[in-house]
Design goal:
Chain lengths: 112, 548
């Protein structure tokens, strides 16, 4: 399918397309901001108060708070990608398919 | 405090440069390692032969026909990203400093979710073979492709030199082969994989390497944990007891000590990853945006898992290598340097046979990474510079493929020569510079071309070039080149990571030179954003996959 002027006009005003773009961008940016906040909170803690991460997890143990926190960030990164892929490959791709189907139907009408 | 920071920085530099620095001594021939390595080479050459028969068109050559699945591509991305430097370097950093190794791993990982959320699907929907396809989608081909190709080639060559020098030294230690022979061997094999097997062979070399590396690292981590009754606390207790830094290894130790360096390093790692041409190219090997997303999900999982393993391996090495005189020299230092920690540990947990296996995996790792780099560099030359700039898109596919194969051989020969020439040089700054250029020239242009309607050719060319120039200049004036290599007293630019500054320069100047561009062409470029955005959002008109 080639994006002609008519096709662009049609898609632009398609409410499903507008919903897709709006929802997906909001979702993607929200997850990006979560990742950035988590990472920079960690990095700035290291820069300003490294001792915080060096506190023992339990009295008398050598394991420090920093170890589970670090591992948790790695897991959070992975889980966030999973959350995004699930919704994007399901809900958003369905919407996207509907937009394309509506566009094809509309363009077929014009040709007639 | 200063000293701690310096130590930490030099160890990163060591790692970033591709594993082994300085003088190394040739070791006796390691027979089991060589046999396992020959098996790997035999298998990968077999795959190359198989791939060569399936590589008929330019699309096959650049993107394996777009037929790689999300899972395969995820493994291949992991194989591209988990270099020997990150395996040996991060475990070596943990061995030396404990917790700081984990900080570095996290920095390398967090770019991936952002690539997924913001870049992967748009890139897949807009591009064909190279990220320059995307950056030049609605802008003028000649200037934008030239800039993107130069950014790609610079990144690739710097990265390649670091890998070649690192591999030569590593192979010298692991296999007892002379440095020059090792470099030539790596160069020749990568030329064979890429010229004959193109992206398909490169992808499978990376997948096999990733599987071997993950398997080997898993075995080592389990062996370490079994030694301590699967109790992390017991492992850490023993490590704290034997490590000269005592319980300091359990907390951050000055890897990033001031906020500017911290933020700058974060930007370099995040945006740099998203601007590496060989990584971006991997998104064109899958069928559609859906598979592109899955690739990042799997890649993030594999890479994250691998970094957790390297952390355990590093701590295991503290206990099992640092206390064993077999792995130490007369002065009590680890033989071959800190980056050999994981290699010695493999011997400690699995004897000569497993040492051979891990050594062969380390070599395989280098081959996989350099192949991906070479292919990305060759594509920038043949697809961007030759086909689209020099021939203005009027070129037949066979001719373009011929040029890309010639370019592959050319890059391979250059990499071998530079690898030999830089043997005794301090190459620590090269990977840092590659990341800085990727973050400051490639990434801002690519990102804004996809997200910002008002981007114009003038803005992209001026801003991208200024970003590139700033990154190069600040690295030269910074502590590593100015002070350590050129021998001046004080660095003119005090920070090791220029990304915060060079990326800002790039974004600001792209913005300024775009909004002040009142030409008719600029207006047309802004208008073309709508069609581009619809394609990037829906995939309408995107490149499909060819079936085999």
């Amino acid at each position: 399918m080639i994006l002609t002027k008519e096709a662009i006009e049609h898609i632009k005003h398609n409410p499903k397309y507008q919903m897709l773009v709006q929802k997906r961008s909001k979702f993607a940016w929200t997850l990006s901001i979560i990742m950035l906040v988590v990472y920079y909170a960690f990095i700035l803690t290291i820069a300003f108060d490294p001792q915080l991460l060096g506190t023992p997890l339990k009295q008398g143990e050598v394991m420090t708070v920093g170890i589970p926190v670090g591992i948790a960030i790695i897991i959070i990164a992975f889980v966030l990608t999973g959350i995004y892929v699930r919704r994007a490959n399901g809900e958003f791709d369905d919407l996207s398919r509907k937009v394309k189907a509506e566009l094809e139907a509309e363009l077929a009408k014009v040709v007639k | 405090m200063k000293k701690v920071l310096f130590l930490a920085l030099s160890s990163i530099a060591l790692m970033a440069s591709g594993a082994i620095e300085g003088e190394v001594h040739k070791q006796p021939l390691n027979v089991s390692a060589i046999i396992m390595f020959l098996v790997f080479v035999g298998a990968t050459l077999g795959i190359t032969y198989w791939a060569a028969k399936r590589t008929k068109t330019a699309k096959d050559f650049y993107t394996a026909g777009g037929g790689i699945t999300g899972f395969q591509n995820g493994l291949a991305i992991a194989g591209d990203y988990m270099s020997a430097a990150s395996f040996l370097g991060i475990s070596g950093l943990v061995y030396l400093k404990g917790y700081d190794g984990l900080i570095y791993s996290i920095g390398f990982l967090v770019g991936w979710p952002l690539i997924l959320f913001l870049i992967a699907e748009r890139l897949r929907n807009l591009g064909k073979y190279t990220f320059a396809d995307v950056a030049s989608f609605r802008l003028k081909q000649t200037p934008i492709r030239t800039l993107a190709a130069l950014g790609s080639i610079a990144t690739v060559i710097l990265y390649l030199i670091a890998q070649m020098v690192g591999s030569g030294k590593l192979i010298q230690i692991l296999f007892g082969l002379p440095y020059e022979l090792a470099v030539v061997l790596v160069g020749v094999l990568m030329i064979l994989y890429v010229t004959f097997g193109g992206m398909l062979a490169t992808t499978w070399v990376q997948i096999i390497k990733a599987a071997l590396l993950l398997a080997g690292a898993t075995f080592m981590a389990i062996a370490v944990m079994a030694h301590f009754g699967f109790s992390l606390e017991a492992l850490f207790e023993k490590a704290v007891e034997v490590h000269p830094l005592r319980d300091a290894i359990m907390s951050p130790g000055g890897l990033v000590s001031d906020p500017v360096s911290a933020i700058s390093l974060g930007i370099a790692l995040m945006f740099g990853t998203a601007g590496l041409p060989h990584i971006l190219m991997r998104f064109f090997t899958v069928a559609d945006a859906k598979e592109a997303r899955k690739s990042v999900f799997y890649a993030t999982g594999f890479i994250g898992y691998f970094y957790i393993l390297t952390f355990i391996i590093g701590f295991g090495a503290i206990v099992m290598v640092m206390t064993n005189p077999q792995y130490l020299d007369a002065a009590g230092k680890i033989i071959g340097g800190n980056n050999m920690a994981a290699i010695h540990l493999s011997h400690a947990v699995g004897g000569n046979f497993f040492l051979g296996f891990i050594s062969a995996v380390a070599f395989a790792t280098i081959l996989a990474v350099v192949s991906g780099l070479t292919l990305a560099g060759a594509s920038a030359i043949s697809h961007d510079l030759y086909a689209n700039v020099f021939r203005r898109g009027r070129v037949d596919e066979m001719q373009e493929m011929r040029i890309s194969k010639i370019a592959t051989v050319g890059i391979g020969v250059v990499a071998i020569l530079l690898g030999i020439a830089f043997e005794k040089q301090n190459i620590a700054f090269m990977v840092g510079l590659a990341f800085a250029i990727a973050a400051s020239a490639n990434f801002p242009v690519l990102f804004l071309s996809m997200f910002w309607k008002n981007l114009t050719t003038r803005g992209a060319v001026v801003g991208g070039s200024l970003g590139l120039a700033t990154a190069v200049m600040l690295v030269i004036l910074g502590p590593i080149v100015w002070k350590q290599i050129l021998g001046f007293e004080e660095a003119i630019f005090p920070y090791k990571y220029p990304a915060l500054f060079s990326v800002s320069v790039a974004f600001l100047s792209i913005w300024f030179f775009s909004i002040t561009d009142k030409s008719a062409d600029a207006e047309a470029e802004r208008e073309a954003f709508e069609a581009q955005d619809i394609r990037s959002q829906t995939g309408i008109g995107a490149e499909g996959a060819t079936s085999h």
